[in-house]
Amino acid sequence: MSVCIIFNPTARGNKARRFQAELAKVRADWALKPTHCAGAARQMARDAVESGFETIIAAGGDGTINEVLNGIGDARDGFKRARLGVLPLGTINVFSRELRIPMKIAEAWPILERGHDLTVDIGCAEFQNGAGPETRYFLQMAGAGLDGRAVELVDWELKKKFGPGAYVVAALKALGSEQPRITIRNGKIGEAAQWVLIGNGRFYGGSYPVFHKGDLQDGVLDAVLFEKMDWARLPGHLWSFVSGRMFRGGASTYLQGQEFILESDRRAALQLDGEAAGELPARITVLPKALRVIAPRLPPKRAAESSDSKVIRERAA
Asked: What is the dihedral of CA 161, 163, 167, 169, to 10 degrees?
């Protein structure tokens, strides 16, 4: 099977250089295409599918993976013709963690070489950008309000030096401004919040199971809502996060659905897979089991995880 690796050479400095050395040693016969600017991976992935490559590996962070995903989707019948592999070279690598891909390059290679397929859901967001309406796919998460604004404010030089710490600094900056009021509807229930997170899988910000009912294969998306976000409430939210309470039922307003409509009373930024995308209003839907990805052989789901996967709404006490 023909394999193309789309590689972000700026991903985490030394890790990227180690990857190049590892590639020559492990699978020198795979085609390697380094990106040259932001957005290039999307066009390169589309071209690779149209050229007949059946496996496209995104070597980089969640942003690179998102570009490659959209490039595959841009190609005619792209999701049927090609599958996606991921090699985690980024700062946080949330989707790789969701798939249980090891963070060490040497340990990730055997998984890619064995090529076990897992068919997963894809999120699709229709939103606004400076040029008008846009549609983009995402794999792991979307965020509107504080989260989206924080991604816009990330200092990329700071990110290269301090990794996830750059997101913390950006979030604190975003918290200093007036927060928008966002309404979210899933067709049955409407809620309002200042910060909305939508997940396809379980994890957010690393290996944190914010979407505790999340499942890449259940055909629904999960939403966690924070009604108020300000300095007074920040300590309580942080305590819920570090104590693990946020990752349990009843800790926050929790919605599930195949479609979410998001609107706002003022400008509200939208991020997809940790990258700034645009702003509300937005329509976010799920494409059930639309993508094949390379993953380890995962153990069967626990009965407790699958039994409540269709819960539509869960409200904090």
From this structure: -40
Question: Which residue is listed with tokens 């030394």?
Answer: 14
> How is residue 10 written in tokens?
């700026």
CA–CA separation, 79 vs 16, rounded Å? 27
Cβ atoms of 72 and 78 within 8 Å: the answer is: yes
Per-residue pLDDT reduced to its tens digit, 60-75 = 999 999 999 999 999 9
| Predicted local confidence at residue 26, as pLDDT | 63
Q: How do 141-145 and 195-199 pair as beta strands?
A: antiparallel
**Cα separation, 24 vs 22, whole angstroms:** 6
Strands 141-145 and 31-34: unpaired
Over range 257-263, report the average pLDDT.
97
The answer to whether the Cα torsion of 241, 172, 126, 92 is positive or negative is: negative
Assigned token pair, 99: 């798939």
DSSP conformational letter for 94 = H
Strand-strand pairing, 31-34 and 3-7: parallel
Cα–Cα dist 78/49, whole Å:
7
What type of residue is 14? N
Cα separation of the two ends of the chain? 52
The answer to whether 53 and 2 are in contact (CB under 8 A) is yes
Side chain identity at residue 243, one-letter code: S
Per the structure block, which two tokens stand in for 284?
Answer: 């976010």
Q: pLDDT tens across 1-43, in order?
A: 699 999 887 765 566 677 777 777 666 778 889 898 888 999 9
Assessment of whether the complete model's pTM goes beyond 0.90: no
DSSP state of 215: -
Instruction: Give Rg (Cα) of the chain.
Output: 19
